Amino acid sequence: MTMVAVKICGVTRERDAVLAAECGAWAVGFVFAAESPRCVTVDRAMGIAGALPATVQRVGVFIDAPVEAILAVCRQVPLDLVQLHGAEPGDVCRKIGLWRCIKAVELTGRESVERAVGFDSVLLLADRPKTQESPVDFALARDVARRRRAILAGGLTPANVAHAVRFVQPWGVDVSSGIESAPGIKDPAQLKAFCDAVRSTHRVKGGKV
After folding, report:
1. Per-residue pLDDT tens for 131-150?
2. Which of left, alpha, beta for 24 (phi over 0: left; psi -120 to 50: alpha)?
3. Residue 9 appears among annotated catalytic residues
4. Is residue 206 in a domain?
5. How far apart are the C-alpha atoms of 90 and 120, rounded to whole Å?
6. Backbone angles phi, psi at 22, to 5 degrees
7. Is 74 an annotated catalytic residue?
8. For position 77, which CATH number holds?
9. Which residue among 74, 80, 127, 174 is the active-site one?
10. Is 107 part of a structural domain of the chain?
11. Dihedral (C-alpha) 18, 141, 109, 92: value to the nearest 10 degrees?
């Protein structure tokens, strides 16, 4: 039996990454996008990644970056996976080559569900999209999770993640701002509470991204 995987994203400090590992996180995410307040330099990411045990996956998050720019970071930082968080076409995952890929897809309706299932590993942005007034129907995320290895993200907090996991039944969950005291600064109590809440939903769920 394994737990729902937890990815702590937008990490900018070594202490937060180490705490995530101690709390049983499956992965830690580093954002390499200048427009993000959680953006880290290659040097900082290398230092944080070096403090993590080998059991924790290191994920590089990119937003519409050129393939060569992504590969340049991957050659310097010991990343295990690449997360594409923009409007990248599907063939970018293939072009990345040696690094496993997670594609973020914003759930806006049935059409987005079909797009999401086109990827082997998908991060489902299930909070309210900027272009949509009504909240996302979690049933859309559940549909994808039944068909693909899905990581649920968007608006998750220690207070709501257990309910979301029980309803959607994703392979994993991703959190960033939902456990922060400021952008890029994880609140230790909130981080622990989030992982504990996910642990409370313990069930059978195997496989790797």
Report:
1. 444 445 689 999 999 999 99
2. left
3. yes
4. no
5. 11
6. -65, -30
7. no
8. 3.20.20.70
9. 127
10. yes
11. 50
